[in-house]
Amino acid sequence: MSDHLKTALSLTASGVPVLPLRRGKVPFGNCTTCTGNACGGRPNMKTPGPCRCPAVCHAWAAATADPAVVASPAWAAAWRRAVCVGYHPGGAGLTVVDLDDADALAWARTTLPATRTVATTRGEHWIYRGTMRSVNAVRPGVDIKSTMSYARYLGPGTGTLADLPDAVRALAVQRPSPVRPAAHAAVMPVGVGGGECPHRTPAYLARGIAMAEQRIAAASSAVHATVYRTFLAVLSRHGRCGCLTDTHVTRLFTAAQAKGETLRHCTDAWTNARTTLGL
Hints:
The chain is an alpha+beta fold. It has helices spanning 3-12, 67-70, 73-81, 102-111, 166-174, 202-217, 223-238, 246-258, 263-277, and strands at 18-22, 26-27, 84-87, 94-99, 116-119, 124-129, 135-139, 142-145, 151-152, 162-163. It folds into three domains: 3-87, no CATH class; 90-174, Bifunctional DNA primase/polymerase domain (Prim-pol fold), CATH 3.30.2250.10; 202-277, no CATH class. Helices cover 37% and strands 14% of the residues. The strands form two sheets. Strands 4, 5, 6, 7, 8 and 10 form a six-stranded mixed beta sheet that branches. It has a four-stranded antiparallel beta sheet with strand order 2-1-3-9. This is DNA primase. InterPro entries: DNA_primase/pol_bifunc_N (IPR015330).
């Protein structure tokens, strides 16, 4: 049994959902059955755990606290190739404030309440009890990892867990959502420029998102560029009328993460595409 698998199993004993991370400290790509979310993905992407196939698929959503799954033959090859153990903070009822440099650490020490800390290569993870949505770059050198995200396990850390403070929650509130809220199902929203919404039926938008997932999944090289171009295409067609929801964006981010993209890369690509289009 590898050291990574031993660590993972010890975490599951505490109810922490875990997953293997490969070179680059990113999740493993989807198996052929789940490529392009052909399997339908997770029935509820807000909960951790594998889809119906036994492999390590769907990025952070593969995380599970079931030791039988973690030690299963279907995960064995991934553990042999793993470079470290990841976990789903939100699934463990936690939020990680990832502080990447000295300036970020100085800010945290003067702004946030003391809690459990874990040293990283460039800074520290500050871990709080409680969950919230994950957001990158809430301020220079600061990422928030909780629901629908993963963090690298770097040890138990030091200090006592504190409750998630309002100061951390406020960081996500201050950052505007990248997606306009969905319109009521009975109303056809109007575009920013006064144009009529092109989504005559829900199937139109559904096809567009499915095609975008397939385009990302099919990328055999230049994944970064493919993800950005795909996000740009989706936003250029669907980004002005208000029909895109968090669920749609989650599907796109999950497809990108399944190809090895980090949450930060996804967020940056989405933001850059919005900026390019003036959204």
